[in-house]
Amino acid sequence: MLEIAVCDDDIADLECAVNMLHKIFTSQKIAYHIEKFMSANQMLENISRIDIGILDISMEELNGIKLGRKLKEKFPDVKLVYITSYEEYCMQVINEVHAFSFLCKPLEYDKLELQILELLNQLPDAIVEKNFYKVTDSNGKGYLSIKLKLRDILYFEYIKRSRKVLIALSDITYEYDCIFEKLVEELQPYDFVVNCRGNLVNLRHIEKIKGFIIYMDNGKELQIAQRRSNDFREEVNKFLQRNS
């Protein structure tokens, strides 16, 4: 899961940036968590992991350039994007802090989205991929192995008659040999949860839940087993809290 931190001592600008980031990462179906801070010192005291930092430059307590230096010392791989009302800071943040980019206030969604998408291309761990072996697709074509992005998989389903596991994407399905219990254990850190016996669903692709029916974002409907309902809903709520 990507850890993003936003720091700006102007509450309106802070909320604006956070809301835009939620929209961007949700649209990309990437697991993420955002922390927001109005103080550079508060951020430094409370943050234990960070992949992306969105920092205002002009802050009274400790400016964003000094904050960036301290973050780089503690987290050498962090990617920094600066937001500022003063374009003259541009070369300073690029030369001194090796910032990924900077954006001028007021923030524009399209420009922020472009910078984030470019940044994600430099973070291979943000888009986790998995190899699947001895696979057959829904058109009958066989593969010795294929590599799929976990974020693109809607759900897995154990097919009892063939003793294979179906991989469902929005536009195609695959089947392959697999021990379902091991798959469940392997994908638990990536927000895949068992909704009923032999079903493992990607929480990112749930559009809504009504009763014991899960409505996926591609129109597919999946069942929730009654005995799993409480645990499943609890995992969904945890996921939503992490990504809100």
TrEMBL record:
Xref: SMART domains: LytTR, REC
PTM annotation (4-aspartylphosphate): residues: 56
Listed PROSITE patterns: RESPONSE_REGULATORY
SUPFAM superfamilies for the chain: CheY-like
Domain called Response regulatory: residue spans: 3-120
Gene3D superfamilies registered for this protein in UniProt: 3.40.50.2300, LytTr DNA-binding domain
Keywords, alphabetical: Phosphoprotein
InterPro entries: CheY-like_superfamily, LytR-like, LytTR_DNA-bd_dom, Sig_transdc_resp-reg_receiver
An MF annotation (GO) of this entry: phosphorelay response regulator activity
Keyword Phosphoprotein: yes
Top-rank taxon: Bacteria
Function: May play the central regulatory role in sporulation. It may be an element of the effector pathway responsible for the activation of sporulation genes in response to nutritional stress. Spo0A may act in concert with spo0H (a sigma factor) to control the expression of some genes that are critical to the sporulation process.
Protein name, entry field: Stage 0 sporulation protein A homolog
Organism, scientific name: Agathobacter rectalis
Lineage: Bacteria, Bacillati, Bacillota, Clostridia, Lachnospirales
